């Protein structure tokens, strides 16, 4: 147990180092809605939001539902002079399935379907007990760290913009119509953006360490029961 | 999150107060969760991340990934990205490289799309190679506070924009899945798609390996307000 604002320069307890510029800050309890920024480089250190954990869980479930729709419904349809073709998300990934381009199929499927799904599951797993002020599940720490590591590699939003460009490219050549999967995917982007806006990694790490008590002053809460 | 830890008490951000870095205090900060630990620790006990002191060791990885990205960027430009055949090859089969595709789009008057593809596939990757290389060269050299802020801004731009280069790979995938109209028109991906994707991934890894704390090493200890 430690009181707010107390720190120990020999053990680092109660101190936060900016991940961008290494400036040391004294940890302090933040109200929901407050944002802590680094004094030197202005990087956001923590930004707890009221009810964030519950909302992230809800948004993760929403993204899983939308992803099921995005994968199994037709994505785009094209027709020209009686010739037509329809493709799903799997069809897009399988475009690279010939010979040497094969690994790209895995990469494309992973970055637009696999990683967003995995991240949603990991976030739910990490935050479900925390949102009810319970101690985290076993292995919540590696689960959340994996989710943070995978963040830049999950490229659903880039894929949607890519779709728009591809459509303009073939727009003059043939008639294109959107399938339900396209709209599901657009919804997925909005849901993911909202989820990211609520995510404050520092706050979640604090909550994991404090066994479910969402505080920013780490040792203010009772000792973890671990 | 309120004030420099030493020698002033919390909640007293004195404008002229020097910034104490974890490194100078004999601590090492966790890059994934921010927790400060004694320098002897190697793993963060909160998030399990590796604790690495902000020194030039990380630059080896930066250079290695950057070189790999650069090597794969060459075939990405030499080989065709798309193979198009219209009317069973009667109207000709065309193989377009990245630059060829841009020129073709310009030719058809799609200046906006040509600009997007050119920016995402040529300007951004090349700019990233130059930016990361420059950051790695000047890393750890004493700079003014203003210069450090500019370098950090550049790093953040590189980090943010890097993944958007993947857009060209997705465009190729969508086009080749969609445009399969038998005799009328069909599009197939070319080998450049793989090397371009690898090049983008390697440069992303290169930017991720760069430790932005190096930008601030060797600075006079001053707070953010001093430079204004």
UniProtKB/TrEMBL annotation, chain A:
<feature type="transmembrane region" description="Helical">
    <location>
        <begin position="52"/>
        <end position="76"/>
    </location>
</feature>
<dbReference type="Pfam" id="PF04403">
    <property type="entry name" value="PqiA"/>
</dbReference>
<feature type="transmembrane region" description="Helical">
    <location>
        <begin position="180"/>
        <end position="198"/>
    </location>
</feature>
<keyword id="KW-1133">Transmembrane helix</keyword>
<feature type="transmembrane region" description="Helical">
    <location>
        <begin position="88"/>
        <end position="106"/>
    </location>
</feature>
<dbReference type="InterPro" id="IPR007498">
    <property type="entry name" value="PqiA-like"/>
</dbReference>
<protein>
    <submittedName>
        <fullName>Paraquat-inducible protein A</fullName>
    </submittedName>
</protein>
<keyword id="KW-0812">Transmembrane</keyword>
<feature type="transmembrane region" description="Helical">
    <location>
        <begin position="152"/>
        <end position="174"/>
    </location>
</feature>
<keyword id="KW-0472">Membrane</keyword>
TrEMBL record, chain B:
<keyword id="KW-1133">Transmembrane helix</keyword>
<keyword id="KW-0997">Cell inner membrane</keyword>
<feature type="transmembrane region" description="Helical">
    <location>
        <begin position="62"/>
        <end position="82"/>
    </location>
</feature>
<feature type="transmembrane region" description="Helical">
    <location>
        <begin position="189"/>
        <end position="207"/>
    </location>
</feature>
<keyword id="KW-0472">Membrane</keyword>
<dbReference type="InterPro" id="IPR051800">
    <property type="entry name" value="PqiA-PqiB_transport"/>
</dbReference>
<keyword id="KW-0812">Transmembrane</keyword>
<dbReference type="InterPro" id="IPR007498">
    <property type="entry name" value="PqiA-like"/>
</dbReference>
<feature type="transmembrane region" description="Helical">
    <location>
        <begin position="160"/>
        <end position="183"/>
    </location>
</feature>
<dbReference type="GO" id="GO:0005886">
    <property type="term" value="C:plasma membrane"/>
</dbReference>
<keyword id="KW-1003">Cell membrane</keyword>
<protein>
    <submittedName>
        <fullName>Paraquat-inducible protein A</fullName>
    </submittedName>
</protein>
<dbReference type="Pfam" id="PF04403">
    <property type="entry name" value="PqiA"/>
</dbReference>
<feature type="transmembrane region" description="Helical">
    <location>
        <begin position="113"/>
        <end position="139"/>
    </location>
</feature>
């Amino acid at each position: 147990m430690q009181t707010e604002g107390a720190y120990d320069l020999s053990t680092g307890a109660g101190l936060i180092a900016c991940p961008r510029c290494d400036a040391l800050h004294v940890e302090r309890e933040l109200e929901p809605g407050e944002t802590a920024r680094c004094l030197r480089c202005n990087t956001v250190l923590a930004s707890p939001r009221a009810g964030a954990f519950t909302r992230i869980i809800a948004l993760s479930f929403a993204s899983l539902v939308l992803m099921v729709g995005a994968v199994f419904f037709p994505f785009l349809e094209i027709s020209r002079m009686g010739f037509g073709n329809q493709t799903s998300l799997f069809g897009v990934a399988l475009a690279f399935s010939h010979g040497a381009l094969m690994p790209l199929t895995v990469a494309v499927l992973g970055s637009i379907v696999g990683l967003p799904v995995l991240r949603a599951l990991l976030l739910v797993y990490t935050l479900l007990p925390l949102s009810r002020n319970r101690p985290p599940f076993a292995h919540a720490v590696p689960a959340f760290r994996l989710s943070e590591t995978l963040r830049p590699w999950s490229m659903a939003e880039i894929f949607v913009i890519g779709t728009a460009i591809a459509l303009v490219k073939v727009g003059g050549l043939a008639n294109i119509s959107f399938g339900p999967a396209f709209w599901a995917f657009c919804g997925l982007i909005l849901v993911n953006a909202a989820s990211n806006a609520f995510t404050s990694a520092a706050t979640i790490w604090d909550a994991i360490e404090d066994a479910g008590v969402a505080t920013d002053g780490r040792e203010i809460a009772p000792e973890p029961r671990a | 999150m309120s004030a420099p830890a030493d020698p002033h008490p919390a909640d007293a951000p004195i404008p002229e107060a020097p910034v104490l870095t974890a490194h100078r205090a004999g601590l090492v900060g966790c890059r994934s969760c921010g927790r400060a630990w004694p320098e002897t620790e190697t793993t963060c006990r909160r998030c399990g991340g590796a604790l690495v002191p902000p020194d030039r060791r990380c630059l080896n990885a930066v250079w290695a990934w950057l070189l790999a990205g650069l090597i794969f960027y060459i075939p990405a430009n030499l080989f065709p990205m798309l193979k198009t055949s219209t009317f069973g090859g009667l109207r000709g089969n065309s193989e377009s490289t990245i630059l060829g595709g841009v020129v073709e789009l310009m030719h058809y008057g799609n200046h906006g799309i040509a600009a997007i593809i050119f920016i995402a596939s040529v300007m951004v990757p090349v700019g990233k190679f130059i930016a990361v290389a420059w950051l790695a060269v000047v890393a750890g050299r004493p700079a003014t506070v203003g210069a450090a802020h500019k370098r950090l801004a550049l790093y953040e731009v590189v980090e943010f924009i890097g993944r958007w280069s993947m857009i060209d790979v997705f465009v190729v995938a969508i086009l080749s899945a969609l445009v399969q109209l038998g005799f009328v028109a069909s599009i197939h991906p070319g080998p450049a798609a793989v090397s371009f994707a690898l090049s983008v991934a390697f440069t992303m890894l290169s930017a991720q390996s760069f430790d932005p704390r190096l930008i601030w090493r060797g600075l006079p200890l001053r707070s953010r307000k001093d430079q204004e």
